Amino acid sequence: MPNKCGLMIxxxxxxxxxxxxxxxxxxxxxxxxxxxLLPCPDTPNCVTSFAxxxxxxxxxxxxxxxxxxxxRLPRILTDMPRMKxxxxxxxxxxxxxxxxxxxxxxxxEFLYRPENSLVHVRSAxxxxxxxxxxNRKRIEQIRKQLxxx
Length: 149
Hints:
Helix content is 32%, strand content 23%. The chain has helices at residues 2-20, 67-79, 134-148; strands spanning 46-48, 63-64, 83-88, 92-98, 105-113, 118-125.
């Protein structure tokens, strides 16, 4: 019986720890005063097109996009595994990507600027310090799919 109790406790603790990996959905992200997306924190687990170009850790190019590309973006996102669109309006889209094993959640934001034919982006991990480049790779994968269509 002690082995079964120990196993049950281990499973319960693992479940609690894994569910804690998702973090809490941030309420402070979105379009900020001045019409930009929130800057990245100092940690290397975030990329944004609003960072200075010299910031090699956080800067990523915005997407070149017209209205047709902006309309394709939600379909591209929903076709990606473990991606969920949380909010979408005329010029803003917010999505969440969840990792397969540890259930970490990354918040993705897209801000369409039709006057510039650009989609600005931000992708950030909710918790932790390093993402091993996952946010940057995901943004570049989305860029490639937008360009290919």
